[in-house]
Design a protein that fits this description.
This is Cytochrome bc1 complex Rieske iron-sulfur subunit. The chain has 3 helices and 11 strands. By secondary structure, the protein is an alpha+beta fold. The N and C termini lie far apart (about 45 Å). The structure holds FE2/S2 (inorganic) cluster.
């Protein structure tokens, strides 16, 4: 357990690329139960079996031909006035926000406090670790996190959200 302190420092240091460091944290903690819980969260994030896309899974082996970028989500799956958790092709956790209908913005889901995964929560973004709350614009509203969630560039095409600029 003394390793946790030094590992936590790594997570803070690499706040933007927290996914792998978080996995390392779980592994080092020897918490098989924690790892299972993390997988459950991932499954919940990618649980939308949207008819028509046929995409899914977590590992994300990329497509074969066409080299089209894989959609992060369908706009219709993002609640208006809320957010949807997603994972990009690089395994980064992001939050897709549709504050107003048809306008999608995105933020890193890595909490700026200590790197936990921030989740959508009824019109806000909530970190379950120490209860930081962020607005749908990524700004920190309350809690120990004192910096906003970094914005992530996304664009909408044909009703789907893709990483990066259009
Ligand atoms: S890690 Fe998010 S509030 Fe502490």
């Amino acid at each position: 357990m003394t390793d946790l302190t030094s590992t936590t420092e790594k997570v803070e240091h690499h706040a933007c690329g927290g996914c792998l460091d978080r996995r390392q944290l779980l592994t080092r903690a020897g918490g098989a139960g924690l790892a299972v819980a993390g997988v459950a969260v991932l499954a919940a994030c990618g649980s939308s079996d949207s008819p028509g896309t046929g995409s899914g899974g977590t590992g994300g082996s990329a497509g074969t031909d066409g080299s089209d970028a894989q959609a992060l989500a369908q706009v219709a799956d993002i609640p208006v006035g809320g957010a949807l958790a997603a994972t990009d092709a690089g395994g980064n956790k992001i939050l897709l926000v549709q504050a107003t209908e048809g306008t999608v913005t995105a933020y890193s889901a890595v909490c700026t406090h200590q790197g936990c995964e921030v989740q959508p929560d009824d019109g806000e973004l909530h970190c379950p670790c120490h209860n930081s709350v962020f607005g749908l614009d990524g700004s920190n509203v309350s809690g120990p996190a004192d910096e906003p969630l970094p914005a992530v560039e996304v664009h909408v095409q044909d009703g789907a959200v893709y990483a990066g600029a259009a």
